[in-house]
Amino acid sequence: MAVNPNHDVPSDMLSRTIKETQGEALDPEIQVEYQVGIDTISKQSLMHLHKLDSFLRESQRLHPNHVLVMSRYVGVDTTLSDGTVLPKGISVAMPVYAINRDPTIFEDPDRFDPERFERLRKQEDAEGSGAGWDSGSGTRWSLTHTDPVENVNFGYGKHVCPGRFLAASEVKILIGRILMEYDIRFKHEEAGRPEPVAVGAALVPDPTAEVMLRKRKAGAA
User: Fold this and answer.
1) What value does the mean pLDDT of the chain take?
2) Which residues, 6+ apart, have CB-to-CB distance to 88 below 8 Å?
3) Residue 92 confidence (pLDDT) above 90
């Protein structure tokens, strides 16, 4: 199966996550969590897939859709609160790739750590500072929660992506079923995880990469 999705959020996230599952980073407990936690698919049951949610956000952190997000054209000379002057006619953007790998924000930022955000959620809950997974967009560390420093992958403020909740639910359902029903590996495993391809400011999954899926036999673990 050649992974070459259209550049929309659900298919892009699915492609990236499938590629993450090829290495040692995939926690077998994610499969157990999905199998035990999903009797009937609903908003609430999907929100309780904490390990899978953490895995997806970590995948998005290391491999965002773009190097830059929230691009804006400066229509008039503008002076920011810190004195920075933005002259009329330039374009500005948020450097999401650099933010996601900033060591002052994330510990060991270049390492893929699928449990990173689950640990942070548990720490937040233990300290009593978290909103919990059942309120609003979820905890501060959930996939769909946006923050001007820690998570601008979906944008921020009034221009934040309104479809992020649907995208997250779609990917959780799809990747969960794939993990439960298929064995997955790269066609060329020796080459390792394919790196994304830069197309302007966009980072798209390598269209030449091939992932092989094999349907498991009934009852196979």
Assistant:
1) 81
2) 74, 75, 76, 77
3) yes
